Amino acid sequence: MSRKQVDHDYNLRSMSNLMGERWKKVNDGGERSLIKAPSSATSSSTTTTTTTGDLERAARKQFQQDVTPGFVYVLAVFSALGGFLFGYDTGVISGAMLLLKRELDLSALWQEVLISSTVAAAALSALLGGFLNGLFGRRVCILLASFFFTVGGIVLSTAPGKEAFLTGRLIVGVGLGIASMTVPVYIAEASPPQLRGQLVTVNTLFITGGQFTASLVDGAFSYLQHDGWRYMLGLSVLPAVLQFVGFLFLPESPRWLIQRGLTQKARRVLSQIRGNQNIDEEYDSIKNSIEEEEKDSGGDGPVIWRMLTYPPTRRALLVGCGLQMFQQLSGINTVMYYSATILQMSGVRDDRLAIWLAGLTTLTNFLFTLLGVWLVERVGRRKLTLGSIIGTCLSLSLLAIGFLMSAQHSPPVTFHPLDPAMANSTCSKYQLCEPCMLDPGCGFCYRENGSALLTSSCVPVNKASTEQAAWGRCSNSSLMKDQTYWAYNYCPTSYSWLVLLGLVLYLAAFAPGMGPMPWTINSEIYPLWARSTGNACAAGVNWTFNILVSLTFLHLAQFFTYYGAFFLYSSLALLGFIFIYGCLPETKGRRLEEIEALFENQLCSCGASDSDEGRQVEYIRVKGSNYHLSDNDASDVD
Ligand SMILES: O[C@H]1[C@H](O)[C@@H](O)[C@H](O)[C@@H](O)[C@H]1O
After folding, report:
1. Ligand 1 in contact with 517 (CB < 6 A)?
2. Family, per the entry (predicted)?
3. Of 304, 493, 516, 597, which cross-links 201 as Cys (Cβ 3.0–4.6 Å)?
4. Is the ipTM of this complex over 0.95?
5. pLDDT tens digits, one per residue of 339-351
6. What domains, with CATH codes, occur in the chain?
7. How many CA atoms lie within 13 A of 25 on its CB side?
8. Cα(487)–Cα(496) distance, rounded to whole angstroms?
């Protein structure tokens, strides 16, 4: 939308307010002036024959003087603690697992179960969250989520065994699912339109901030071999309690209150959030839209059915779920979960150093999400998402090329030691490091002299700990003499710089757009009656594809090699680009109530609405102004 048109829209909107206030003043007998207009405008308000030029000037002045009250920021930050916990709880487990698997003697299966149980619980509870949101409201759902985070954190940090730990992970997962779908909706519903994108994006900034904090905490407590994991997981209780207490005092979403018919309360909350600015026009607009939406929404039946049978919401749901699906299919969580392995490929052999350096990945993700917060209201959602996904696609190709070069220059196996148990292992058949590394049962044991590799062998991995070989030189750290290394899941390579470059570019491209925009856009594309269900479905899709991609990554790498897997993600990102190009309309600057109209056209003509800004004028209601005059609905002018 051009700047000029935004100004024009606001002028009209402000004018409608201004006119309302003037009528009010006339009716009040001219006793008070409710707008902070310049003296010229104020004096002319004693008559209703003011010229449009005067009105427009005064409206412009008034609009320029509007400041966003601080309360909306407080509200956004307390809600975004839910995002922080999302990032922290999904991020902290990788470091905690390193300690936990030794202390609780976990098999590979148990490790997988403990990691994926949270994500699976989140997928289910996100869907359930839609129902809870509609029934109890956003505030109760956020309170519920922080309650689950708190209880889950306590159970995890005090767990006596793996079963109790699994229970804790499931409880946290339930909190995650509810928070992930509620928080963006709550922030979007409380924000003024010109700030909405930025404030909802802050939630993703908190997610990546949580992931970054988790990597620092993992690094710090990795030195505490005994019970370190209890502190790592227990720390999440602090932000959870803070959010719970905060939300005891924060208000419900005004839009939800209006929908529930609690109009007086809604007016009070709206004026509290807007810092006692005039809320008549906004209140009126929300109320009317809800009434109209309810007429349009196709009668009875479950919300999801009504959404699917009403074309605009069906299209919005497709776009929302598609965005979340492509976010995960672009492989963000393989990069987040396996960055330590990728770093090891680039020559970092010390485990602790790899954990710390993995923190750099999460820091990059966080910093570039910050760029997204800055860009979202400047360039708009559509351009930001398109730019981001094309960058993601290219950098994934670069990552793949890095892995390809490493594979093509894979070091050979030069030494074939005899298995002491005389067992016939497949590992001894490999002639190169690449296939040896891709076999989850084997690892590469080698000596290094300068840049030359000597006596390299492919031997079975220790089933209890992938950090060692089952037998031989690499089976015990004290046996590993100087310059002897054990590489599991990676091969020593001189092309690691290409992989690292790809990784950094990937995060720089993904984090400002594809990271936050699916959440931000989902929070604004559904009409109120469909908002919680729409967000619940989209969040459910996000969690489902998260688990699908992260659980299949290693198998995918085994069958298609690392470069094959990353080329696949790159092609999926390209598909995502085509989908977004065709289907995602621009929602920047529009009121939530106006956005439904963007989905009235055919699905794949959405890009056209970018230039279709004249439509904006249709939605400006002058009702707010007439409201005081007659309180008579028949006098509304659309
Ligand atoms: O938007 C977030 C963010 O990009 C995170 O880094 C990622 O781990 C999540 O899966 C995603 O939903």
Report:
1. no
2. Belongs to the major facilitator superfamily. Sugar transporter (TC 2.A.1.1) family.
3. 516
4. yes
5. 776 676 666 666 6
6. 66-250 (1.20.1250.20), 299-408+495-587 (1.20.1250.20), 411-492 (no CATH)
7. 19
8. 14
